[in-house]
């Protein structure tokens, strides 16, 4: 149950996307919304004071255009953006954190973790990256389906966010030497062979797990997971992709997982990162 949502913004146009989507989700779910901006305490004090005052005014005015029917509050605090966002999530008992996409810095993104990835790694709640400028309700949702507890959690949360939406599970497989085998005419046969195990896993997943009624048949396709999910989302006109975070939460977890990381670096639409409760 999503009762409290935090929408974190750095006051950029990317942060505006998070605030817009935060209001849309809070309105749909009748949830409490906290619009949070952390002013970096490494800045000189006079600059912090100016930014804080201007942020209160601009966020207040922006929220008034979005807040009809939503119980919300604006908070502008001084601190460490990463640590204090994570701390606020825990302190407020938030059920969902909404952030905008990170600023594109191609070289640096290749060699180090982005702020959004670091927050997602440390947070103990699902993180919704709002990348779509259209905050309309989700009608089709693409779910990264590896048949794990994370995928199950993702299906359940997707159904909460958009009760009437079609949830399309997508499972990807890698077929070795497919290009070489295409010349001999054996590529399709090999693809069918590699599909047998995921088809069986999909059947077991559905038989043994409580899944939403709106879950569609699983699509099994060849290719890299992140690019395949993005391609399906474009083809299906989906405005949300759901993937699992994988791994442990906390300071000592080295990284998010390749699929979640790739989706956050280049989100084709909104991306929801989920993890099984307690992981």
Automatic annotation (TrEMBL):
Keyword terms: ATP-binding, Nucleotide-binding
Stretches that traverse the bilayer: none
An example molecular function term from Gene Ontology annotations: ATP binding
Entry-linked CDD domains: USP-like
Any one Pfam family match given in the protein's UniProt record, by short name: Usp
Superkingdom of the organism of origin: Bacteria
Domain UspA: 1-129, 138-275
Alphabetical list of PANTHER family matching this protein: STRESS RESPONSE PROTEIN NHAX, UNIVERSAL STRESS PROTEIN RV2623
Family the UniProt entry places it in: Belongs to the universal stress protein A family.
Protein's UniProt name: Universal stress protein UspE
Organism from which the protein derives: Thalassovita gelatinovora (Thalassobius gelatinovorus)
């Amino acid at each position: 149950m999503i009762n409290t949502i935090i929408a974190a913004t750095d006051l950029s146009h990317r942060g505006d996307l998070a605030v817009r989507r935060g209001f849309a989700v809070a309105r749909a779910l009748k949830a409490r919304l906290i619009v949070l901006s952390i002013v970096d305490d490494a800045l000189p004090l006079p600059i912090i004071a100016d930014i804080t005052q201007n942020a209160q005014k601009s966020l207040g005015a922006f929220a008034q255009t979005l807040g009809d029917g939503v119980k919300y509050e604006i908070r502008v605090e001084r601190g460490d953006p990463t640590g204090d966002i994570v701390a606020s999530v825990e302190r407020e008992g938030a059920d969902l954190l909404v952030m905008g996409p990170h600023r594109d810095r191609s070289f640096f993104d290749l060699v180090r973790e982005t702020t959004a990835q670091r927050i997602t790694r440390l947070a103990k709640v699902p993180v919704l990256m709002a990348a779509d400028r259209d905050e309309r309700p989700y009608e089709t949702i693409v779910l990264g389906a590896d048949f794990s507890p994370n995928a199950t959690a993702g299906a359940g949360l997707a159904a909460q966010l958009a009760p009437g939406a079609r949830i399309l599970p997508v499972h990807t497989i890698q077929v070795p030497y497919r290009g070489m085998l295409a010349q001999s005419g054996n590529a399709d046969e090999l693809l069918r062979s590699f599909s047998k195990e995921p088809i069986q896993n999909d059947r077991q997943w559905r038989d043994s797990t409580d899944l939403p009624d709106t879950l569609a048949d699983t699509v099994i396709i060849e290719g890299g997971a992140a690019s395949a999910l993005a391609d399906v989302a474009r083809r299906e006109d989906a405005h949300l992709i759901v993937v699992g975070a994988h791994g442990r939460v906390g300071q000592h977890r080295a990284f998010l997982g390749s699929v979640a990381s790739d989706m956050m670096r280049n989100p084709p639409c909104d991306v929801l990162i989920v993890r099984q409760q307690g992981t």
